[in-house]
Each structure stands twice: as C-alpha cells, then as structure tokens.
C-alpha cells in the first residue's frame, strides 16, 4: 500500500521519523549541516541529518546487494540521484501521515506503543535466529536498535491510521460472486496455460493481408519470419507456454488469445504494440474450483483492494492539501 510500508521493508528502506527542527539557512559546520532544512511540510521541517540517516541505511542495503563497485558507474550514479529524490518524497509523505495520525488522534499511548514495539523486536530477533544476528543486521544497514524501535513505532502508528480510515469497509456477497464469475481463470485447480505464437506488425492492413495468406495455405512460421517485427520472428513467432493469469503480457493480447481454440489463428488483434495474429499451438485448461471453496479468498482480496484504494485516495488528498517545499539541491 502506497506510503504504508510493511515492517521488514521499513527496516531496510526507512530510518527515524520524528519531529524535525533546524535553522532555515544552510550551515557550514557538521552539526549545523545536519540541521539544514531539506523539506518543509505544513510548517514542520525535515532536516538533512534525518534524511542522511535514512539514505545511509538505503545505500548500505544497495551496496550489500550489488557491491560498491557496481554503484560507481555513471548509470548507477544517475539512478542513485533518482533514488535520493524518491526517498525525500517518501519522507514528505511520512511526515504528512504522522501529522494526520496526530490530528485524528489514533496514536496509541506510550505504554501500548512500548508493548507493541517490544513484540516486533522479539519477532525480528526470532526471524534473525538470535539477538546477535539481529544486531549484525542492524550494523549492516547502519542502524541502531533505537533507530529500529523508532521505525517500529512509526509503522505501528501508520497501521492504526490505516485501520481508522478503513474500519467501515465491507464487501458484499454479490460483489464476491461477480468477481468469481468474471475471473474464473484465477481459480482453476491448476494454472491454465497455452502454447502461443504470434506475428506482430504495425498496421491493420498488413495484418489482414498476412491472415489472408495464412488462410490460403501459407505456414504460420514462414509468415512470422517474413513479416514479424519482434524478437520472436526467427523462431516462427513462438512465445512458448504462457499462463492465463499473471502472464506479464498485454491484457488485450491475453484476452484475445484465451478465446482462440487450439490449432487456430486469430483475426488481427490490436494492442499497444501494434497488430497481432495469434496462433494457439496447444492449451491446457483445468476445472474451476467451486465458488464456496474460494469465496473467503476472493472476499479478502476485494477487501484489501478497497482498503488500498481508500488509503491511496486519502494520501493524494492530504498531499494536495499540504504546503510542501523541497530543497533537493541540499540532499
């Protein structure tokens, strides 16, 4: 959910979120530099010190994943600039979220917060295997246990904010049944798959001409090699075995391909890439699970989607109504 990080992800990507103070001018001394304001959000500041702590942690993770040398290339340096800008945007949104949590009075009392933070720390120690391993992880990402406790506190407060905004969200049985009827391919006993080939061209007239040649007896593979414009042309347009769900292919392409029978070739299909002729070499389709066996799964899916939508709408609304000033040249 946009702006609401999962706890483990937060451990990697975010540092301390707290009240920000600092002078309005850029200071030359190390301590003054930390107080330099890099963003103002509704009259609250985000300082360079706060930003740098989170950036150092993020950079440590990137170095662990890719190695320091890999981050030295010109391309990597440009990407890091983009990452810095994105991190500042994230910190601005976090500041807005915390302000709204205070405004809506959803922040738990200190005793409750401490109990929940302790629980999350215990969970992380268990996940790491030992307290020493947890400490090593924190060292690797340049965080202290106190930093981590602050992150846990922030996440708990954000979770409470989310709950307050979505507590009245419901999903009706009719909505669940409608989704099931319209998306049965998501609920087969095994994933449906099809072996697909295609010919991609830029215009409808050419696609129609190629289909006419195929109907007159030309081989699909030969036509793909002759007319195809993508990387599959030399293999006869073969795309391999493609799952019906989460294929990664253009949805217009998939919707059309599913309707084509085994051994048949479609009429021209328009997508964002051009016009396709789609051949189904083979299909493997399985029975659909009974509605009652997947009803709760669908209901939970739709419930989470509704909640996510509400949160995203609220974030956009809050951001648009906030006074935000960023000084990206200072980060």
Mean pLDDT: 90
Order of helices and strands: HHEEHHHHHHEHHEHEEHE
CATH class assignment of the largest domain: Mainly Alpha
- Uncertain segments are 1-25
Task: Outline the biggest β-sheet.
Answer: 4 strands, antiparallel
β-strand percent reads 5-15%
The name CATH uses for the topology of the largest domain is Triger factor/SurA peptide-binding fold
Into which percent range does the helicity of residues fall?
40-55%
Could you state the CATH homologous superfamily of the largest domain?
Porin chaperone SurA, peptide-binding domain
* Rg, Å, rounded: 27 Å
How many individual domains? 2
Separate helix tally: 12
* N-C termini distance: 26 Å
Q: Strand tally, please?
A: 7
Main β-sheet, spatial strand arrangement: 4-3-6-5
> What is the CATH architecture assignment of the largest domain?
Orthogonal Bundle
Q: Globular, elongated, flat, extended or rod-shaped: what is the shape?
A: extended
> Pairing-aware structural class of the strands and helices?
alpha+beta
Protein name: peptidylprolyl isomerase
Enzyme class: isomerase
InterPro entries: PPIase_dom_sf, PPIase_PpiC, PrsA_foldase, Trigger_fact/SurA_dom_sf
EC number: 5.2.1.8
């Amino acid at each position: 959910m946009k702006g609401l990080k999962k706890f483990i992800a937060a451990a990697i990507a975010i540092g301390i979120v707290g009240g920000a103070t600092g002078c309005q001018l850029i200071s030359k001394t190390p301590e003054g530099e930390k107080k330099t304001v890099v963003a103002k959000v509704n009259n609250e500041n985000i300082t360079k010190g706060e930003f740098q702590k989170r950036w150092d942690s993020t950079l440590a993770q990137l170095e662990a994943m890719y190695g320091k040398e890999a981050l030295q290339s010109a391309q990597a340096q440009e990407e890091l600039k983009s990452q810095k800008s994105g991190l500042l945007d994230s910190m601005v949104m976090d500041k807005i979220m915390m302000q709204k949590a205070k405004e809506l009075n959803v922040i738990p009392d200190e005793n409750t917060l401490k109990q929940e933070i302790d629980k999350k720390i215990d969970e992380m120690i268990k996940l790491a295997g030992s307290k020493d391993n947890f400490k090593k992880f924190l060292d690797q990402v340049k965080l202290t246990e106190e930093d981590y406790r602050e992150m846990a506190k922030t996440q708990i407060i954000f979770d409470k904010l989310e709950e307050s905004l979505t507590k009245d969200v419901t999903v009706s049985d009719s909505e669940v049944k409608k989704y099931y009827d319209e998306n049965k391919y998501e609920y087969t006993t095994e994933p449906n798959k099809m072996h697909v080939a295609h010919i991609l061209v830029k215009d409808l007239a050419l696609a129609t001409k190629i289909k006419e040649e195929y109907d007159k007896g030309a081989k699909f593979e030969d036509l793909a090699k002759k007319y195809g414009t993508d990387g599959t042309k030399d293999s006869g347009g073969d795309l391999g075995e493609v799952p019906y769900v989460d294929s990664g292919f253009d949805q217009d392409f998939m919707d059309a391909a599913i309707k084509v029978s085994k051994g048949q070739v479609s009429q021209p299909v328009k997508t964002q890439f051009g016009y396709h002729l789609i051949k189904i070499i083979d299909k493997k389709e399985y029975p659909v699970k009974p509605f009652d066996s997947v009803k709760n799964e669908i209901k939970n899916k739709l419930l989470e989607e509704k909640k996510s939508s509400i949160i995203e709408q609220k974030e956009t609304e809050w951001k648009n109504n906030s006074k935000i000033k960023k000084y990206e040249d200072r980060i």
